[in-house]
Amino acid sequence: MKSKLERYVENIVRHTECSKEEKEDLYEEILIHLKISSDYLIENEGLTREKAEERAIQLFGQEGEIGSQIQQALFPYRKELMLTLSISSLLFTISIYVLSLFVEGDFYVGWLCYSMCLSSLILILPLNQHFHINRKLWINVLLIFHTLGQLYGWLIVGDLDHSANVGLTIWVWLNIALSIGLLYWITIYDYGSNQKHMKLLHGLNIASGIIIIGISLFLIVGGLIMIGEFHFMMILFASPIAVWTALYVAQLKLVKKNKNIAFVLGFIPIVAGILILFWIYGPLLYL
């Protein structure tokens, strides 16, 4: 059974997004420091082992707060960039909604709710100090769907007949660039210079994932607009996402055994995405 000190240190480490090796080193360093502190309290203040550990924990600080401080030291400016992305996206969403409502007479309530919710979650997660979650996974998922939401916002901007069109287009693409940049940064951090192949593999899958998910959502939304109700075809439109996910998992399992096969699988979604894009937009080239 783990001691109170060990559980306390685990909670601190959970608030960081370090690599596995860094988490192990961080765990050992903090645990050793707390044990030395509790031993000192036993020898000099005559406390029992249990009371000394409680006092050492109290002096060290609240685990969420300490974990966030360590996170900020390890990843300077990431929190600031996340907050910037969230606030910028919220303001962009409100601006587009107001313009489309009062200038064009249209309103996109579904997109408004979608974009506002994702932007708010991106705002909340960097400030979270109390919930033990796999923040790296959840932030990456949010950033992918946030990017897709901003791309849809760009399409809305394209339909607006307003002098602010150019400025709004630049604004939304800055949001998209920041979102994708953070996605790459968070994903590939665990892999050092001796694992460049892992960085490349994740990079390929992030790029292909954005393409595949974007195309699937475009086809699903287009189908709902044309048909007006759910149809079995919508499941087929969503199937590329399942295929991409399965290939991604397969690559991560195969890369340690055979890099070449893993990279071949990594290029399949990209080639498929390009072919699908050509199938959708190819006929327009001849018009």
UniProtKB/TrEMBL annotation:
Transmembrane keyword on record: yes
Keywords: Membrane, Transmembrane, Transmembrane helix
Keyword Transmembrane: yes
Protein name: Uncharacterized protein
Upper lineage: Bacteria, Bacillati, Bacillota, Bacilli, Bacillales
Transmembrane segments: 81-102, 108-125, 137-156, 168-188, 200-224, 230-249, 261-281
Source taxon at top rank: Bacteria
Organism: Litchfieldia salsa
